[in-house]
């Protein structure tokens, strides 16, 4: 019997990271370790990970040093899924992983296909991808489309994922006919467990997706499931350009979110077809690699979400 690979997950108390940790645990194929920042060691989520057999190592991605190399000793695969403030700090983590003899590094991507020069956040993530290639560390880059959990806004504004979620959902760009790829967060870990155990994905970009749909189709699902009419607003190409320019001038989270919206609904970057193009990174299609995985649909998610008190 071959020895199980050891995988350390950064961000295992967060949304993507928890899905990844769960996927790895449920696969029974790995020794799963969670890198938890010292300040978070007593969180209930950490107790839950421990109760599922996950080893905890205390590491803060923002303060990587020689002790981090020790924390990574014996680790075969590093998976990074921390928040947007920690993207550039991954460079030191990549160095530590290389020193510790890690075989494969999955940096913090987990978003939507794009090309450089459109979204600053994508470009920042690209700097880390370039660095991993430059120093010759094994890698897999993974994107997932838009989460089902982020596209459908709550009925209650106090439960919004981000402040403009309800307003943004009702905006129609380009007639609402631009295709986008979507994935339920819960499926990310199921796919990730297969991807990192697969020699075909080493040193490749992989695209996970559950379904493709237009804004009109997503709104249609929400209307049918909720039994309401959603009032939409058409945004002209000129208004879209103005929104983008204003957000770029404001910077920060506003820029991240507006550049996403522009990439999704105006440019149409987030499609399966684009992800596979060389200029988008030439992705391997996770659905073609693992046809036995049956991802959750937008309609299934909408029923489970709006069926509760949201
Ligand atoms: N595709 C989509 O629709 C979509 C949507 C949202 C996000 N994303 C992407 O998914 C990725 C992860 O985002 P998320 O929203 O899933 O994350 P999240 O839920 O915000 O969780 C962040 C995680 O990072 C950990 N963390 C923060 N700072 C840290 C540090 N200095 N050292 C170690 N751990 C630290 C947090 O741990 P603590 O417990 O210590 O706080 C938490 O586990 C990002 O790349 C983001 O762009 C994609």
Automatic annotation (TrEMBL):
This is NAD-P-binding protein. PANTHER family: NMRA-LIKE DOMAIN-CONTAINING PROTEIN-RELATED (PTHR47706:SF9), NMRA-LIKE FAMILY PROTEIN (PTHR47706). Gene3D superfamilies: NAD(P)-binding Rossmann-like Domain (3.40.50.720), UDP-galactose 4-epimerase, domain 1 (3.90.25.10). InterPro entries: NAD(P)-bd_dom_sf, NmrA-like, NmrA/Isoflavone_reductase-like, PCBER-like. The keyword NADP applies. GO terms for molecular function: oxidoreductase activity. Residues 3-302 form the NmrA-like domain. Keywords: NADP, Oxidoreductase.
């Amino acid at each position: 019997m071959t020895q199980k690979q050891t995988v350390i997950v950064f961000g295992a108390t967060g949304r993507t990271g928890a899905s990844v940790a769960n996927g790895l645990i449920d696969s029974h194929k790995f020794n799963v370790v969670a890198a938890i920042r010292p300040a978070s060691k007593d969180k209930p989520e950490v107790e839950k990970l421990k109760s599922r057999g996950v080893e905890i190592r205390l590491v803060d991605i923002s303060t990587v040093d020689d002790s981090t190399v020790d924390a990574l000793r014996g680790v075969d695969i590093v998976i990074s899924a921390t928040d947007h403030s920690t993207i550039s700090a991954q460079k030191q983590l990549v160095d530590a992983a290389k020193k510790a003899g890690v075989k494969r590094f999955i940096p913090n991507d987990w978003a939507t296909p794009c090309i450089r020069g459109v979204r600053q956040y994508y470009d920042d993530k690209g700097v880390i991808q370039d660095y991993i290639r430059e120093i010759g560390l094994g890698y897999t880059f993974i994107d997932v489309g838009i989460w089902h959990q982020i596209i459908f806004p709550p009925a209650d504004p106090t439960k919004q994922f981000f402040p403009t979620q309800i307003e943004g959902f009702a905006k129609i760009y380009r007639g609402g006919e631009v295709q986008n790829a979507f994935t339920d967060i819960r499926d990310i870990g199921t796919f990730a467990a297969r991807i990192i155990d697969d020699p075909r994905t080493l040193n490749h970009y992989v695209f996970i997706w559950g379904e493709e749909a237009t804004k009109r189709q997503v709104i249609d699902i929400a209307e049918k499931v909720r039994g309401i009419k959603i009032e939409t607003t058409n945004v002209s190409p000129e208004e879209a350009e103005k929104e983008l320019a204003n957000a770029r001038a404001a910077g920060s989270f506003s820029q991240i979110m507006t550049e996403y919206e522009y990439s999704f609904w105006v440019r149409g970057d987030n499609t399966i077809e684009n992800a596979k193009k060389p200029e988008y990174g030439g992705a391997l299609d996770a659905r073609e690699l693992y046809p036995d995985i049956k991802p959750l649909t937008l309609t299934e998610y909408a029923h489970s979400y709006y069926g509760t008190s949201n």
